[in-house]
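I'll show a typical protein example:
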Amino acid sequence: MTSLENSPYLGWPGRPHLTLGNQLSLGLFWFPNNVMWTGLLLIVLPERVLSLVGAHAATGVLSWASFLGTLVAILVTPVFGLISDHFRSRLGRRRPLMVWGTLLSLAFLLAIAYAPSVPLFVVGLVGVQFFNNVAQSAYQGLIPDLVPPAQRGEASGYMALYNQAGVIVGGILGAFFSAATFVWSTMALLLLALGATLGLVREPDSRPLAPAPLWAQLRNLFRLGPGYRNFWIVFWTRFMVLIGLYVLEQYLLYYLQFVLGIRSPETDVFLILMVLSVTALVASLGAGYLSDRIGDRRRLVMFSGVLQGICALLFVFTHSLTTVYIAAAVFGLGYGAYQSTDWALVVDVLPGRTAARDMGIWSISTNGPQMTGLLFGWLLSVLVIPHLGVSLGYRALFALTAVFFIVGSLLVWRVRKTA
């Protein structure tokens, strides 16, 4: 086993090879977090803002509040990831911060559900983003810490499986229950998963770790050396692919309404996302396991990303809602495979020492594309639609997403070293 200072892999105490139970307990905390963010972003936040400010101001308030929350998440994850890397306790480096971050986020979740004014609502949203990402920044370090390199694809597959199950459950809870019921249900799931992680996951005691210059490293948080070349390639691969994904998600409703002419597309949006999530769930575990057997994860990352790009092109040329459902189902297969193998690949190329900090920086490749997708939507409304019209404008936007999917996926072939 490699030493604590020289490798992201520390090992699960007494488990050189993880069992199915180990894998399931390690990935469980992803589930309630995806339940929470799916329901909040797609349904609960828009509905709460609408009830507070009315239809005319809702879009503006939701946009700047969401932007502020995303900015907080981008800043928090690498900082507290680095703090987690240097945390000393008998329970290890990760789980103590998971406890504090999760417990403190619960009060702000209640503020989202019950806030009587916009300022309190924004405080709730920013507080959830801050403290939930404290917990997530530490949690992201567990797979690099505890999973042997030969089982990383399998672990990432379970992570993707929990993610997609969380999307499905979060969508259902958000769509069919009140904001208060959604929040209380989510809080219960978070506490149950946190308890299971504390009781079932084992970390090495981090107290023997030699003192490290934490504050000096915080001042140089984003200064990564030449050993991070492959990390940055995988980072930008994911950034480009997720721009495509978030543009499709954010503007799917408008595409159905303005391009296909569906008068009330809300139900179809929900069903399309559920179809995509189910097929992604099916693909995620198998692809992660397959990537461990193949060895070269780049092939699966590239294939799955290109598959998503081809499906995005179907949106550009079709006039049929049935084709959209078929494309969504195939897209989900590509997305599930991409999600599981891409995560394993980035863990493979980590140089070591500061896994949670590195995965915190890596999370910017998830949050950043959300902001970039909103920028593309604004550019579409200002520069494209006035000249091409709404229908052709959205077809052009979806054609651009196909380019991001395909180019981003091909970029991964420049990675030269994997574990």
